[in-house]
Write a structure and sequence with these properties.
mainly alpha, single chain, 181 residues
């Protein structure tokens, strides 16, 4: 598929073939060869199959402010009102393990359906932005440019002479203030 002929093939066999070109890349027709081209499959990265980081799951720090709730942030005993040490340790362990496993269970049950819902939502949002919002804004900008030209002509035709005449009439007015005793 690179457009090169094998030893036992002739040019006549490939004249009608739409898939193999003798010269150039289909993406860059003026290139003589397709080797060492900047459009190489190895340099392309598919964003849908990129590797995810399983260690740092919030690389953009979206949820730094949300749920940093530890046992000490929720339950605290002031001095003089301590429970038994065993109860305190068991409460800490119970709180921490319950929070950990409830989160994991909820993400296992609800995470994938919500990922599907959010994927559909952002796909619709992207579609509307690309195919509806941007064309409407461009159309509006084109139309408003025409309206602004007409408005500018009207202002320069009617308002400029009126305000210029009023300015000349009112420019000779002098105001003096005197203090009365």
């Amino acid at each position: 598929m690179t457009g090169e002929l094998k030893d036992d093939q002739t040019d006549e066999e490939f004249l009608d073939s739409p898939f193999i070109r003798k010269q150039g890349n289909i993406f860059k027709p003026n290139n003589k060869t397709m080797d060492n081209d900047s459009f190489n499959e190895k340099t392309l990265q598919d964003v849908h199959t990129k590797e995810i980081d399983l260690v740092n799951r919030d690389p953009k720090h979206l949820n730094d402010h949300v749920v940093k709730v530890d046992f000490e942030d929720v339950i605290a005993e002031p001095p003089g009102t301590y429970s038994f040490d065993g109860v305190w340790k068991a409460s800490f362990t119970t709180f921490t393990v319950t929070k950990y496993w409830c989160y994991r269970l909820l993400t296992a049950l609800v995470g994938i359906p919500l990922a599907l819902v959010w994927g559909i939502f952002f796909a619709i949002l992207s579609f509307l932005h690309i195919w509806a919002v941007v064309p409407c804004v461009k159309s509006y900008l084109i139309e408003i440019h025409c309206v602004s030209r007409v408005y500018s002509i009207c202002v320069h035709t009617f308002c400029d002479p009126l305000f210029e005449a009023m300015g000349k009439c009112l420019s000779s007015i002098r105001i003096t203030t005197t203090k009365g005793v």
